[in-house]
Design a protein that fits this description.
Elements lengths: L1 E4 L6 E7 L2 E7 L7 E4 L2 H21 L3 E2 L8 E7 L12 H7 L13 E4 L3 H14 L3 E3 L7 H14 L4 E6 L4 H9 L12 E7 L5 E7 L8 E4 L1
Parallel strand pairs: 6-9, 7-8, 7-9
Antiparallel strand pairs: 1-4, 2-3, 3-5, 6-10, 10-11, 11-12
Helix pairs in contact: 1-4, 2-3, 4-5
Length: 228
């Protein structure tokens, strides 16, 4: 049995300036997302948490107003795992901090308009240097390990509100596969112990996606192009 979980109504509005225009941060009093979930108690509780997290994230990217982009401008989503972790705590190790400091290099002359991170400190630490360098907002999105419906809901919010922009998403080893699948419609191998993978997904206005997998933060680099 399935059921729809409605969203609460709230109203709040502010604005921030990004490189190519203005992003309105707006809380809308409408149901932005409906997640269909199994009607068991445990699943309902988890779905409610994800729903709330997605609603908060949606508030931060809804009604995006940027300098007009061409109607055929592609959307570029760059997905990375958080940098090298200190296994004893939710934080980056020294090598991880050094790697995070180089995330900005991924973008060259096409900086992100928004930077997304989860509630985990290691994800924020990875995302912050690029956001600081390019002076763009950071937005938290739900951390739901291995959950493809949640990743798909996240992708819908992004593609609905941020089309034509470049975006950075700092994820985790157990979210990379569903995130890449949601945006690129292509499954990739689990990252396992790797911290250096870069999944650059370019989505055309028609919806076709191209996935380029590279590495960053060290001297080794490999690339694989997949068209969908």
């Amino acid at each position: 049995m399935l059921r729809n979980v409605p969203l609460s109504h709230r109203e709040r509005q502010s604005a921030v300036t990004v490189g190519r225009g203005t992003v309105k941060l707006i809380t809308v009093g409408v149901a932005l997302l409906l997640l269909t979930v199994p009607a068991s108690a445990a699943a309902t509780c988890e779905a409610e948490r994800v729903r709330c997290d997605l609603a908060v994230m949606s508030d931060a990217v809804a009604d995006k107003q940027a300098s007009p982009s061409p109607a055929d401008a592609p959307t570029t989503v760059v997905i990375i795992r958080h940098a090298d972790r200190d296994d004893a705590r939710d934080a980056l190790s020294k090598p991880g901090l050094n790697r995070a400091a180089r995330v900005w290099e991924i973008f060259e002359d096409n900086p992100p308009a928004l930077v997304f991170h989860t509630s985990r400190h290691r994800s924020k630490q990875t995302a912050r240097p690029a956001a600081t360098r390019y002076k763009v907002p950071m937005v938290q999105y739900p951390y739901v390990p291995g959950d493809e419906p949640a990743a798909a809901a996240f992708a819908r919010v992004i593609l609905s509100n941020c089309a034509g922009n470049t975006l950075l998403v700092a994820g985790h080893s157990d979210t990379i596969v569903p995130l890449v699948s949601a945006f690129a419609k292509e499954r990739v191998e689990p990252v396992n112990d790797a911290y250096d993978r870069v999944y650059r997904i370019t989505i055309s206005a028609s919806g076709s996606a191209t996935l380029l997998v590279t590495t960053y933060g060290n001297s080794h680099s490999s690339a694989q192009r997949v068209a969908q």
